[in-house]
Amino acid sequence: MRKIISVLLLLTTVAMLFSSCANMRGEEETTPPAESVTKEPETETETETETETETETETETETETETETEVVTQTEPEPIRVTELTLDKYEVTIFVGGFDMPWVTMQPSDATDKSEIWSSNNTSVATVDWYGNIYGVSPGDCTVTVKSADNPDAFADVAVHVKEKPPETTAADTTAAPEPETTPPANTGAAKYEPAPPVSGFPGLTYINGILIANKTYALPSDYNPGVDGTAYAALMDMFAGAASEGISLWIASGFRSYDTQNWLYNNYVAMDGKALADTYSARPGHSEHQTGLAFDLNIVADYFANTPEGIWLANNCWKYGFIIRYPAGKEGVTGYKYEPWHVRYLGTDLSTAVYNSGLCLEEYLGITSVYGY
């Protein structure tokens, strides 16, 4: 009996142990480790964060792209094209050596590019420079055309009639004889020439020792409009022929300018560069030598002209034909203007030779100033 009870107790104990082991296995299979439970939510959170970050980055990139596109569009506006070109006159009559300039108006007024292109169909009769100044060369008729550089279909023609210039008789011819000219000592480096009192011919003109003066000190009247001086023009043609015989080509870039034309040019320069700078290279209206009809700009109005074969020939030979380089290098503080190797002034051969040999500019030679008083 005792044996039976012992066996039963043993079996019961084994059964309990078996049941306990089974329960432990079930808990292990259904309950994940604490570490795994913690990691799974973290992985999901990180994935969501990365997705949101990528979405935000894509949105920012799209926004930046749209902004850049808008900026490019704003900085590249469509140009406003010239549609029409008109003139204040379509026919001009000038004398040989004379000048005229039609006034151009382009529409619309706010066109982006309003530059002009001028041409003559017969340069043996009349030439035209880039300003639109038309110069009479020989008697005859021709056509000068101006086109819009922006739109060649916008253009206008000017009928040009060039006549022989009549003999000149001016008030200056009837004035008292000027003081006789004397030649200053050559290459003195200082003004030794005592100027004679100014002599007026045409009211408002200033002559010093027989020389018509136009500089910053001495002005010309607004109604003084002589055109190109015939004697100066003939001497210029002689100089052109002499240069050509040596293989040098010279031509007129700018000749006579009226008071009104100089006023227009000067104010344009002031608008571009300011008054102080404009005064170093452009004369105020009434103070320009071009208004005398005795001055010419030749070939290229640029500093580098001085070093071209034409510029070198002009500097070394113009005095032989009655001209001087009016605003020489190193004399800016005396003449009031920068060096202009292209600008010549007619004085006649006797005086041009004397000024050239002196090494002085005209102001130094005559002992006068060139300073604005206003």
Rg, alpha carbons: 45 Å
The whole-number mean of residue pLDDT values reads 79
Number of helices: 9
SSE arrangement, N to C? HHEEEEEEEEEEEHEHHEHEHEHH
Total domains: 2
- Order of adjacent strands in the largest pleated sheet: 2-9-8-5
CA-to-CA gap between the ends?
Answer: 149 Å
Large-scale geometry: elongated
CATH architecture of the largest domain: 2-Layer Sandwich
CATH class (first level) name of the largest domain: Alpha Beta
SSE class: alpha+beta
Q: How does the major sheet shape up?
A: 4 strands, mixed
- What proportion of the residues form beta strands (DSSP E)? 15-25%
Runs in which pLDDT lies below 50 for 5 or more consecutive residues are 27-44, 168-200
Describe the structure.
There is one protein chain. Residues 27-44 and 168-200 have low confidence and may be disordered. The strands form 5 sheets. The chain has a 4-stranded mixed β-sheet, with no helix packed on it. The protein has a 4-stranded antiparallel β-sheet with strand order 12-13-15-14. The protein has helices at residues 2-30, 34-75, 230-244, 259-273, 275-278, 309-317, 332-335, 349-358, 362-366; strands at residues 84-87, 91-95, 99-100, 104-107, 116-120, 126-128, 134-136, 140-148, 155-163, 207-208, 211-212, 252-254, 295-298, 323-327, 340-346. The chain folds into 2 domains: 84-163, Immunoglobulin-like (Sandwich), CATH 2.60.40; 171-366, Muramoyl-pentapeptide Carboxypeptidase, domain 2, CATH 3.30.1380.10. It is of the alpha+beta class. A hairpin with a 5-residue loop joins strand 6 (126-128) and strand 7 (134-136). The radius of gyration is 45 Å and the shape is elongated.
